[in-house]
Amino acid sequence: VRSLGFIGGAGLKRFLIGLAIGAGLLTLSVLLVLMLGQYEAAAPAAGSLSGIAALLPALLLVLHWSIQSSTEETVMRGYLVQTSALQLPGWVAILIPAIIFSLLHMAELGLSEPVSIINIVLFALFASFVALRQGSLWMACGIHAGWNWFQGNVFGVPVSGNAFQTGVFHLAPTETATHFLSGGAFGPENSLVVTIVWGVATVMAYRYFTSDSAPESASRFSPDAAQT
User: Fold this and answer.
1) Distance of alpha carbon 112 from the chain centroid
2) Which of 86, 82, 194, 73 is CA-nearest to residue 127?
3) Pairing of strands 171-173, 39-41
4) Angle formed at CA 87 by CA 81 and CA 89, multiple of 5 degrees
5) Residue 137 CB: number of other CB atoms within 10 A?
6) CB distance 208 to 21 below 8 Å
7) Lesser CB count within 10 Å: N end or C end of the chain?
8) CA 96 – CA 90 distance, rounded (Å)
9) Which DSSP category does 222 fall into?
């Protein structure tokens, strides 16, 4: 487990900080889409939970997203990044798992939603920079979980095209919404608004990754270190 990136002290604290970051980035994205007039409150589907009735179930579902997101991060940022780092230069070792991560989602989309593929690659790069800088996966797992959790169970919008019945709010594209701004049936991950949000976040994560104050543990996890 340690070799995959679950190292360093205060793992739970890092995870919770990541959870807040992921939830915050998703909230910012949804608010921007709302401000652009692309989303509106929608009636929940028959049998769905919403409002106060959804609060406790939505809170419990954070466990589901924590497991799901941590599994993906362990495989992608834990195993694949480190394995690639043993064979390839640092940038390539980061980029290849990001492309694989997007291809796995492309299996559902084909080439019909190019914006979502760009956004998935941006998220993968962002998560890699955070994990490599910290020398652990805890925060990256939290960010991934917080993003999906708020997306599906707080704002009630599709997560990578998958809709969920439990949502504190239920938002949907307006009748006049532009597909590339609202994300359509795929959800905000297919929106150009999210491209901007993740683009800025990825630049900030890269600056964080390359900062002079990186902890000693980050060098063990860094692809560049594997080349020496």
Assistant:
1) 21
2) 73
3) antiparallel
4) 75
5) 30
6) no
7) C
8) 10
9) -
Query: pTM to 2 decimals?
Result: 0.88
What's the length of the chain?
A: 228
pLDDT in tens, 156-211: 999 998 999 999 999 999 999 999 999 999 999 999 999 999 999 999 999 999 98
The pair of three-digit structure tokens given for residue 32, joined into one six-digit string = 């921007």
DSSP three-state, residue 180:
helix
- At 160, which helix (H) or strand (E)? none
Count CA atoms closer than 13 A to 33's CA, side-chain side: 37
**Domain ranges across the chain:** 10-37+46-227
3-state secondary structure of 200: helix
Q: How far is CA 88 from the centre of its chain?
A: 25
Asked whether the beta carbons of 140 and 130 are under 8 A apart, the reply is yes
Give tens-digit pLDDT for 54-107. 999 999 999 999 999 999 999 988 888 777 766 777 788 888 888 888 888 766
| Contact indicator for 80, 140 with CB cutoff of 8 Å | no
